[in-house]
């Protein structure tokens, strides 16, 4: 039996982002499964790195992933734009919190939110990275 853990987690994160964008069409304009070649619509979110650690015992395999989502925006010194971005981040925290299982038989309970720069070709964007510290699944050992 092949595992679909990585694909399922990406799909689960994307589902949260798309549902959020549908409910908040003026706050989040773009959603991408991977880092796009360009950002025609900002603010936008993309699913970034997803490193994982795997442990085995006699009958099971536990996969623990730390996927991240990056939300980017144009750099501005406009207080109104920054306030809207802070609102976006706060509401995304709530949206992710409401979904402790990003895929069937998985669970997560740690989330970090970090401001960062997002260089992108000739441009530099401001970004916030959401990192799920411990999305895990226990599977039968193959």
If you had to describe this structure to a student in words, what would you say it looks like?
This protein is of the alpha+beta class and 142 residues long. The chain has one domain (5-140): Alpha-Beta Plaits, CATH 3.30.70. It has two helices and nine strands; from the N terminus they run αβββββαββββ. It has helices at residues 5-23, 79-97; strands at residues 30-32, 44-47, 52-56, 60-65, 68-73, 106-107, 111-120, 123-132, 135-140. The strands form two sheets. It has a five-stranded mixed beta sheet with strand order 1-2-5-8-7, with helices on one face. β7 and β8 (123-132) form a beta hairpin. It starts with a helix and ends with a strand.
Topology:
Elements: H1 5-23, E1 30-32, E2 44-47, E3 52-56, E4 60-65, E5 68-73, H2 79-97, E6 106-107, E7 111-120, E8 123-132, E9 135-140
Parallel strand pairs: 1-2
Antiparallel strand pairs: 2-5, 3-4, 4-9, 5-8, 6-9, 7-8
Task: Output the keywords.
142 residues; alpha+beta; elongated; four-stranded antiparallel beta sheet; Alpha-Beta Plaits
């Amino acid at each position: 039996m092949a595992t679909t853990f990585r694909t399922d987690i990406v799909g689960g994160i994307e589902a949260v982002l798309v549902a959020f964008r549908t409910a908040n069409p003026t706050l989040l304009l773009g959603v991408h499964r991977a880092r796009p070649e360009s950002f025609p619509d900002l603010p936008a979110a993309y699913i970034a790195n997803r490193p994982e650690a795997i442990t085995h015992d006699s009958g099971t395999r536990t996969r623990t992933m730390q996927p991240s989502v990056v939300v980017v925006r144009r750099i501005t010194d406009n207080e109104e734009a920054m306030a809207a971005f802070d609102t976006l981040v706060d509401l995304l925290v709530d949206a992710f919190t409401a979904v402790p299982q990003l895929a069937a038989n998985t669970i997560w309970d740690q989330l970090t939110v970090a401001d960062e720069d997002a260089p992108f070709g000739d441009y530099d964007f401001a970004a916030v990275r959401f990192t799920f510290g411990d999305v895990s699944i226990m599977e039968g050992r193959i």
